[in-house]
Structure formats: C-alpha cells, structure tokens
Protein: Response regulator transcription factor
Organism: Streptomyces kasugaensis
Amino acid sequence: MSGAVRVLVADDQNLFRESLALLINSGEDLTVVAEATTGEDAFAQTLAQRPDVVLMDIRMPGGDGIEATRRISAEPVLAATRVLVLSMFELDEYVYSALRAGASGFLLKDARPAELLDAVRRTHAGDSLFAPSIMTRLVEHYLDRPTPGPPCTAGLGHLTPRETDILLLVAQGRSNDEIAQDLVLSVKTVKTHIGNLLAKLQARDRAQLVIAAYRGGLVVP
C-alpha cells in the first residue's frame, strides 16, 4: 500500500500478534510489513524491513523487547523507525526502561482497537504516547537516577521564547492541535517549531523533549 505507515509487530503470543496484525491492516493508511516472535528477530526484521513503527512486546524470548528497542534506537540506519512498547502491566520499571531504551511510547495491551490504531499513527507522527500520569512518574525517576550519556543534555537558554512556550506545552502532554489552539498558531507552524526543538535539543521524539523540559528546569516534578 503506497504511502501507508509501515508497521512491524513483535510479540511471542501467536494469537495476540496475529490479531494485532489484522487490526493494523484494517486501517487504510496502515500496513504490517513483518512479524517477530523474539527480541532478536524483532531487531533483525526491523533492520531488514525498515518499518516506520515497531509494536514491541516487553517479555519475549531471545532477548526481550527492551533490549531490542535499545538496539533499534542505537542503529543509525533505523533513525526514522519509532518503537511503541506494549505491555500487560503499567509498571514504573517497564515504562522507565522503555523510554531509556529509546521507545517513543508505552501502551497497555488492554487498549481499545481505535486507541491502538491512533497510537500507531501518532507515534509515526512523532507524538509521545505516555499518559501524563505515567510520564510524570517516569521523568521523576529519570531525573533521580541519571546515567552517562542521557538524551537531551543541552540547556534551554538557546531556545527562542516561542520555542520555550511550545516546549512547556509539549511537557504538559498537549497535542499539536491543542498547542496551536492555545498559542493561536497554525498546526504547520507548531510542527515547524517542534522540528526545531528536536534539532536544537538533540531529541529523538517528543518523549525526549519532555525529559529536556524537566532537566532544563522548565517544568519542576
């Protein structure tokens, strides 16, 4: 399907994985290009297929989803691929590990079909799919326990006032449409500013922009 968002589904439970694939293929703008049952296979298939979005289970044999996500995020040729982690449990340690590994979002497996399809589209568009409550706990944990080489270590002093305003709203979980409405801007202008923020803060996606906002003191946990 020309122009469709290309998705890889990684889950070791056959019924669930195949159901996800059917659901995703039901979207006119989405298509499944590969499936994987192990973490190792997820990385290999991602490297071979170059999907736009990977739906990644956490608990899989042959290297778990977190390790596969870390390898995907560290591979330069996969810079355009986004990982949306799926889990049965809303555990802080899973969410924390997923973001630290480079995931662009974290979704529970009991999400409604429409929510999952929307999550895939939003992940491809560069949105962060962490619920505000999850993101708040995660960022606090991240700031309390930093490790060498974290993302978004640049300061915020080189941002323009408008970029700072938009970064604050991103950190509050606002969508592009909501930011545009709040600041009386076009959605296209908001996307341009967010692109500039990603470049200036060396961030991979909106999740890392949120981290930058907290680390830079723009938002206090």
